[in-house]
Amino acid sequence: MKTFKILFITALATIVLAACNNTSEEKDNGKMDSGSKSGMMKEKSDKEMTATFMGDFKGESGHTVSGKTKIKDGKLMLTDFKTDEGPDLHVYLSKGTDVKDAKEISKIDLKESEQTFDLAGIDVEKYDTVLIYCDKAHELFGSAMYSDKTADMMGNFKGLNDKKVTGMVTLNDNKLMLSDFSTDKGPDLHVYLVKNDKIESGVSLGKVDLKNKEQSFSIPKDINLKDYKKVVIYCDEAHVMFGEAVL
């Protein structure tokens, strides 16, 4: 009888221990699943914060809208922006040009060519288009489809030494591209890739066309773009920097 009791107690203890082990494993698995999900969410968040999305505006519904949009570091930026006037224009993020499921961001300023909006808490990868929409008239004024430009290096020009230089520069696929570019006139303007604030650290990619807003220059394959911090518009004859764009 005593032997039977001992065997019964031993078997019962084994069952209890097995149940505890299963519960522990389930908890551990739960922790791993939770950690994995957390890691994936963090990875996605990090990507959104480091990725750059860009697009060009075009008019819709017979309206004129122009300029560029850039999404970076949780901000939506409009540059060189112009639009037809409307009574109640707002900027939205959408999938395509349908405003039905779009995310309203803010009301826009009709007179400002450079505008910035906060995108905190918004998953920009759920959308692919920036809309300019008139809430009052229920009419689409313009749109800009954007795409991931993480591999590109970009910057906006500003003037130096009392000179005026505007526009955007993009470096990608061994090409340097100027868009919406404008500069004060100079006798011998060139575009340089520069490592620091000194032109001596730079390399000239070619002479600038003063009348062309869209220009492209080839970048030698032996140049490591990571070594360069700025694109400079420089007058070789006068030895003066006209403008720069920090990459």
UniProtKB/TrEMBL annotation:
Residues 55-147, 155-247 form the DM13 domain. Pfam families: DM13. The keyword Signal applies. The keyword Signal applies. This is DM13 domain-containing protein. Keywords: Signal. Residues 1-18 form the signal peptide. It comes from the Bacteria.
